[in-house]
Amino acid sequence: MNEIKNKDRRDFLAKAAVAGVAIGAGTNLFGAANKPNIACKGWAAFDESGELKPWKFERRAVGDDDILIEVMAASICHSDIHTELGHWGKQIYPQVPGHEIVGLVREVGKNVKNFKIGDRAGVGCMVDNTDIATAGLEEQYSKNTIFTYGYPYPKEPTGISQGGYSDYFVVNSHFAIHIPNELSWDEAAPLMCAGITTYSPIMKYMKKGDNVAIIGIGGLGHLGIKIAIAKGAKVTAFTTTKSKIKDIESWGAKAVLVKSSDDLAPFRAKFDFALSTIPYEFEMEPYIAMVKPFGSFTLVGMPINFSQKTQTLNLASTKVNLNASLIGGMKETAEMAEFCAKAGVRPNIVKITGEQINQAWRDVVAKRARYRFVIDPKSF
């Protein structure tokens, strides 16, 4: 796994170097002919300090397959923090983070059939693919997919994809979904990453009536609880934060406060499925042991350097299917949004301004978020 990640990182840096040459030459290699770039305001990281600052920049002009979105809400994911701190590899700056984006369609390219001006649109972790015909239904696994920020992207004036902490956003229409009218902007934004990231493995590994463990109750975990319950599971949530117990119980789950691995012993082989959203390395063995033989334990929290440790003997003795999940394809993302709208699944959010982003990041790291910060782009 580390060998693969290192290769991916080398490939990224090589592509970034090419993009850097293009920027230095003042060239927008694939810009839409005779159309001006889109002037934007946003909040960007300029280094690995974790401090964001206001930034005026340009996005590419709307191409034939693109839509222009006026961003109405963008929410904060722990991935934003990991990325800009360099936890997942060196970055190119300035870089606008954010891959939970919703807003109104203000312009459509001439080839776009699935959106019209005035539609409600949402964008998650992907924005384009250089060979869309081969991307399939699980676009996140295509080698040609462009992710929402920090990815080498010669179409963009900055040479990399720029994320959603911004007032406007340009995306290939294939990588946008329609936002159901039942969802407010603030409710819809966190679904674009946190929603699909938890929904996808729940749909794959869980069935109605299962005993399910959700481990780590933050932005992802709290939606994991709500989605699993809405799908008919009996949910037990594991948290190290005492102040979250009442919230967990109010959502219909049993809450367990974890102070040490001893607190997990009574749950050995009790669960059909476990979903871990913990975004840092942790002692996995006591949690894995809570899953029944041949049940599944899925990791969706991605730690520093994407590295987790476990003992092979533990897996052999428990016979648990240990796996990790990324996000979900666009078809499944649209399905998730419709399900949440109809089933009443809503994130718990705190609305903030651009000036409050840096404090919100600190609160996320300190486990003080309750449970997703949603940024108002009108404050930029």
Automatic annotation (TrEMBL):
GO terms for molecular function: alcohol dehydrogenase (NADP+) activity; zinc ion binding. Its cofactor is Zn(2+). Pfam families: ADH_N (PF08240), ADH_zinc_N (PF00107). Keywords: Membrane, Metal-binding, Molybdenum, Oxidoreductase, Transmembrane, Transmembrane helix, Zinc. The keyword Ribonucleoprotein does not apply. SUPFAM superfamilies: GroES-like, NAD(P)-binding Rossmann-fold domains. Residues 50-375 form the Enoyl reductase (ER) domain. PROSITE patterns: ADH_ZINC (PS00059), TAT (PS51318). The chain crosses the membrane at residues 12-31. InterPro entries: ADH-like_C, ADH-like_N, ADH_Zn_CS, CAD-like, ER, GroES-like_sf, NAD(P)-bd_dom_sf, TAT_signal. Belongs to the zinc-containing alcohol dehydrogenase family. This is Zinc-dependent alcohol dehydrogenase.
